[in-house]
Amino acid sequence: MITQDDIDSVATNIAGTDMDVYQEQANSFAIYDKSFKVVYPSLGLASEAGEVADKVKKWIRDGHMDKLEIAKELGDCLWYVAVTAEDLGYTLSDVALLNLEKLSKRKKSGKIKGSGDNR
Ligand SMILES: [Mg+2]
Fold first, then answer.
1. Global confidence as pTM
2. What's the 13 CA to ligand 1 centre distance in angstroms?
3. Ligand 1 centroid to 118 CA: how many Å?
4. Considering only CA atoms, which of 6, 2, 20, 36 is closest in space to residue 94?
5. How far lies 63's CA from each of 5, 31, 50, 59, 105, in Å?
6. Mapped to the 3 state alphabet, what secondary structure does 53-111 carry?
7. CB 23 within 8 A of CB 78
8. 16 and 97 in contact (C-beta within 8 Å)?
9. Residues 6+ apart with CB under 8 A from 84
10. Per-residue pLDDT for the chain (119 aa), expressed as one digit of tens each?
11. How far is the CA of 1 from the centre of ligand 1 (A)?
12. CA of 68 to the centre of ligand 1 (A)
């Protein structure tokens, strides 16, 4: 079970580290019209998630998984996550910590399974 101490430890280790360096570098490639900030990268994230699903679908169809190509699509997703977070005023480490906190709360309340954004 993830404890608050675990989260605090990760928070200390995540903040300002490679995740945020990556985000800064990722944003140097963001060339879209900023009047579409949040919207443009969110749509891109949905599109790239579809590309991941397509590669996995082809694994079923063709009988072999191209892990490298899936990893590349995951990288595309990561880029869009980083840029969307930036547009919202968050660092990637902020997003990672928010996710760990949400998962920890769900686990503590026995709601790690199931559905719904705010279990
Ligand atoms: Mg792609």
1. 0.82
2. 30
3. 29
4. 20
5. 43, 38, 19, 5, 38
6. HHHHHHHHHHCCCCHHHHHHHHHHHHHHHHHHHHHHCCCHHHHHHHHHHHHHHHHHCCC
7. no
8. no
9. 38, 41, 42, 45
10. 666 776 676 666 666 679 999 999 999 999 999 999 999 999 999 999 999 999 999 999 999 999 999 999 999 999 999 999 999 999 999 999 999 999 999 999 987 777 777 76
11. 34
12. 12
Rounded distance from Cα 48 to ligand 1 centre (Å): 5
Domain 17-108 is of which CATH architecture? Orthogonal Bundle (1.10)
Radius of gyration of the chain (CA): 17
Model pLDDT, residue 114: 73
Q: How far is the CA of 69 from the centre of ligand 1 (A)?
A: 9
| Pairwise CA distance, residues 46 & 77, whole Å | 8
